[in-house]
Amino acid sequence: MSKTSIKEIVEGLLELQKTDKSATILGIGPMSRNCVQAALELSKEDDYPVMFIASRNQVDKDEFGGGYVNSWNQFTFAEAVKEIAEEINYDNFYYLCRDHGGPWQRDEERNAHLPEDDAMKIGRESFVADIEAGFDLLMIDPTKDPFVRGKVIPLETVISRTVDLIEFCEIERKKRNLPEIGYEVGTEETNGGLTSTNTYEKFIIRLKEELLAKGLPMPVFIVGQTGTLVRKTEQAGTFNFRNALELAKMAKRYNVGLKEHNGDYLDDVSLLMHIPSQITATNVAPQYGTEETRAYLKLGKLEQNLVKEGLIESPSKIYQVLLDQSIKSERWRKWMDGDQVNLTVEEILEDKTLSNEILDISGHYTLNNEKVKREIKKLFKNLNEHGINGKRFVIDHIKRPIRVYSEAYNLRGVTTRIRELKY
Fold it and tell me: Does residue 1 lie in a domain region?
């Protein structure tokens, strides 16, 4: 069947919200090949579209440092997803999406306080690679400005940069005679951002005026703050149904879907509230990476049990290597609370409880580390010799929390429901 565009998917979801067949689709962080396979298998099994939302830290051009996920650039990422889809005879719709594209969106760019012209140039070049690699959705996010840290970037500045980048992307897309792509705009920041309904509507109105004046398309998603906030491996925010519903209704007036970020670790009640709140899509990323880390640690415990039973003589060092590399990565800092952000590696190593917490938070950042890959390979080999498919366990372990979301979000059969709207 011909691929339905991301714009048509969103339009279909907005129509379904008028019925009892509504759904909220998932944007899943492509934390690893295993995570991609888990998401595609569920999408195939339950008949719903899935979005892979890649940040620039995860997937980017080689000259900018590539991504921490498998060292993927835009093209190798696209090829990997295609390969996995072919391996499992995938027959639904997946969408390659840029999450938080634009200037200063790589950690090192922000930390280096790159001048605006340099940051915008790099952001544009990254978008060109996205377009050439066949991405379906680009999030235009010019709000990570290191020169206004701790302050809210003026709305007009955000609008100006957003329009400039959409115009640039449309020019580059048309140069290459490529199909239309969707755009996502806004920010999930809680310290201002698009939190209030007044600010949200003002942003939409001003953005629409500027885009129409230049003959540019309206976005398919606008991110709004629904109260979600991820810290460590927990949902530290509180889902705000009333705010979500008001933002969703406002977005629908302009035929745009409300997109929620930081949707990880939500409780069942909050998940089930997404359908009546009319949220069109939710992004979830670190939770699925954490689930993969936990899967390896469970397999490590299994391996140790087999050692005690005299069945394995040379076990892997999966726990210790994952622990060491997670702490040394220092990628856990962005998820910590308060003064813990400034902890030294030495302080963490002296505290076993804290060390394990860090491992839980940032183990997935190390899965492309050669030492970690070597131990995973040895772990799988040891278990396979005793009839245990470690890779299958890891994929199924990741599928569990994705399934919780897909069931609460009424996703089963949504591809068919959207296609039926057209006939």
Answer: no
165 lies in the same domain as 298: no
What's the pLDDT score for residue 196?
75
DSSP string, 305-348: HHHHTTS-SS---HHHHHHHHHHHH-GGGGG--GGGGG--HHHH
Per the structure, the complete domain to which residue 215 belongs is given by 6-286+405-421
How far is 109 from 66, CA to CA, in rounded Å? 13
- One domain, residues 117 and 79: yes
Tens digits of residue pLDDT in 125-166: 999 999 999 999 999 999 888 888 666 788 888 899 999 999
Instruction: Give the Cβ contact number of residue 77 at 10 Å.
Output: 26
Structural domain count of the chain: 2
For range 104-123, the mean pLDDT: 94
Beta strands (DSSP E) in 73-220 are 94-101, 137-140, 182-185
**Could you give the CA distance from residue 423 to residue 417 in angstroms, rounded to a whole number?**
11
Phi/psi of residue 152, nearest 5 degrees: -90, 125
User: Which residues have a Cβ under 8 Å from the Cβ of 343 and sit 6 or more positions away?
Assistant: 336, 354
State the helix-helix crossing angle for 155-175 and 197-213, rounded to 10 degrees: 40
Q: What is the pTM of this model?
A: 0.95
Q: What is the pLDDT of residues 214-227, one digit of tens each?
A: 999 999 999 999 99
Position 76 in a domain: yes
Helix, strand, coil tally for the chain in percent (to 5): 55, 10, 35
Cα–chain center distance at 403: 16
| 188 has pLDDT over 70 | no
